[in-house]
Design a protein that fits this description.
Helix content: under 10%
Number of helices: 3
Mean pLDDT: 94
Structural class: mainly beta
Strand content: 35-45%
Largest sheet: 5 strands, antiparallel
Low-confidence stretches: 246-250
Length: 401
Amino acid sequence: MSAPLALSPDGSTLWVVNPDAGSVTAVDTTTLRAAAPRPVGTEPWSIALTPSGDVVVANKASGSLSILSDGRRTDLPVGAEPAGLALSPTGRYAFVALSTSEAVAVVDLGRLEVLGPVSVGPWPWAIAVTDDGDADDLDESVVVAHRLARLSPGGAEGRDDGKEGWVTRVPLSDLAEAAAEHDHLPASATTALIGPYEFGHANGLDGLAVYGERLYVAHLLNSPEFPRDFETTVSAAITSVPLVGDPAGGGEGLRLHLNDESFSTPVNHPTGIAVSPDGLSLYVTLGGSDAVMGVDLSLEGGPRLIGFWPTGSNPRGIVLSPDGSRAYVLNYLSRDVSVLDLSDRVGRSELARVPVVGETLPTAELRGKVLFHNASSARLSRLGWIACATCHLGGGSDGTT
């Protein structure tokens, strides 16, 4: 999956991005101490680790990859505003979602060569790569979540059912070949549709994870039709659909409206998602609620809310320890990492809060960012449904009329 933090395979070292500081930080998960930040490009957004331990960083504002290896740093230009970053299982290839170029850049990390962008459609954002456990990268698939919804067939702006969320899947072999030829999306690509929901359409597809033959997406729900009250305009959801079979209509899968009163209290802006190693639970960072939500997938009657773990300000991503007992959460605006005890489903405790970088912004600018993304204060958001950032993703637009 693509995320703003990455854990080494043995679970001993956590790497996180510091977007406003232009750096990355390594955290020892035994001592819970952070090393000195290391500079990379401007606005590092996603990070991944190769099996050999190299650190690969997508820098959103400088349009580059930074590769940290044996104390050296190499920067490669990849294209405009890279967001999601994921590696092939062997670490040979990096796949970078170029969010405003409607393309995915394919990078051969062995040769430090950018093979070329492949057009995949508007707003590629989160990205993931399957892993069947063998040493062959070319039998895997790349999965891309498009951040903004597109018009449905016959759909119209301003209608609850006028748009649809979408995810594109491409065999890695075809994507690499198309990149070498600077070609468009291969004919082998398939599209999965995210939805439908009774509450509007899927939008803001920020979190994406692949587990086995299923993909899991954390996203918003947009309902532009009247009435436009706080509880009828924007909501939060999780969708899971199979990677195999006919993807049209989303296939048989999980569609979970997080703000449905029968499931949960109101939460805001799911940003990152992780599935437990046994596949029986999933965990979602809630960007405006300053919390992680746990969901039990093991019950025959359907998903059940486990509860909430507290975090710092504006959690953006989550990774789990190899045994699934701990979660590490990047809190973008409090500049730290929350360490959560997932085995404690009653107390749901935060074991530690680890600072990862010093503040680089003026006090007023940081305060403005915190307020912009926050939905947990009653002074800002009635009952916690909506923050400024819910409709203005990254300070821009969510594409909804």
